[in-house]
Amino acid sequence: ETGVTQTPRHLVMGMTNKKSLKCEQHLGHNAMYWYKQSAKKPLELMFVYNFKEQTENNSVPSRFSPECPNSSHLFLHLHTLQPEDSALYLCASSQGPTNSNYEQYFGPGTRLTVT
Amino acid sequence: AQKITQTQPGMFVQEKEAVTLDCTYDTSDPSYGLFWYKQPSSGEMIFLIYQGSYDQQNATEGRYSLNFQKARKSANLVISASQLGDSAMYFCAMREVNNDMRFGAGTRLTVKP
C-alpha cells in the first residue's frame, strides 16, 4: 500500500451507533489530520496530530474522538452522531505542520451518512 | 485570520483550451505557502502545485502553472490544454508558518468535448 488509505470508504450509521474511521499513511510523515467536508462548505480542519501528540482541536463536538497510537495511524471514533454530521471525512498527512511548504497528502475519504 | 477566496463557483472550458482559476488570499505573515488541489468525484484531494511566498518565479508542474502576484495577493491556477479528465473541483489553500492549512470554497471545472 502506498500513500494514505482510509477505511471504510462508505459508512451508514444510526444516531445511537458507535463506529470508528481508520486512516493509515505509508509516507513516513509525522503529522496527520482529520478534515470534514460538507456539501457547499469549505474543508473544515478538525484535528491535528504532530508526532502522535494532538496539537489542535478546532472546537469539534465531543461526539468525535480522535486517537493517534503512532505516527502512521489515525482513528476517528464516532458516537451519538447527528444527521448534520453526514459528510466526507478526509484524512491527510504531511512531513510536519510547522513549515509552510509541506504539502498535505490526502486519503480517499470516508463518506459518512447518519440516519 | 487567514482567508482564501475563490470567486468562481463553476467554470467551463473547451477541451484543449487553457483555463484560469482564481484565488486570492489574505495574510499579514511574510512567510506562507500556497497550494492547489484537485478533487475528482471520487473524493480524494490530489496535490497539484505549490508556491512559496519568497519564490521569485511562478511555479509550474506539467500543464499546471501558478500565476503568483504577491502584491495583489493572488495565486491563480492556469491549466493549459485542458483534458476531459481535468473536470473536478479545484481548491486553493494557504498555510502560514506554524499555522494549519486553510482552504477556499473551491471551483468546479467542467471540460467540454
Which features does this protein show?
heterodimer, A: 115 residues, mainly beta, 7-stranded mixed beta sheet, 0% helix, 56% strand, B: 113 residues, 6-stranded mixed beta sheet, 4-stranded antiparallel beta sheet, globular
Strand content of chain B: over 45%
Distance between the termini of chain B: 41 Å
Number of helices of chain B: 0
Mean pLDDT of chain A: 90
Number of DSSP E strands of chain B = 12
Report the mean per-residue pLDDT of chain B as an integer.
94
The residue fraction in helices of chain B comes out at under 10%
Oligomer: heterodimer
Specify the structural class of chain A: mainly beta
| Biggest beta-sheet profile of chain A | 7 strands, mixed
Task: Report the end-to-end length of chain A measured between terminal Cα atoms.
Answer: 32 Å
Number of beta-strand segments of chain A: 11
The parts of chain B where pLDDT drops under 50 for at least 5 residues are none
H and E order of chain B: EEEEEEEEEEEE
Class computed from helices, strands and strand pairing of chain B? mainly beta
Which H/E pattern describes the elements of chain A?
EEEEEEEEEEE
Count of runs of 4 or more consecutive helical residues of chain A: 0
**Helix content range of chain A:** under 10%
**Low-confidence parts of chain A, pLDDT < 50 over ≥5 residues?**
none
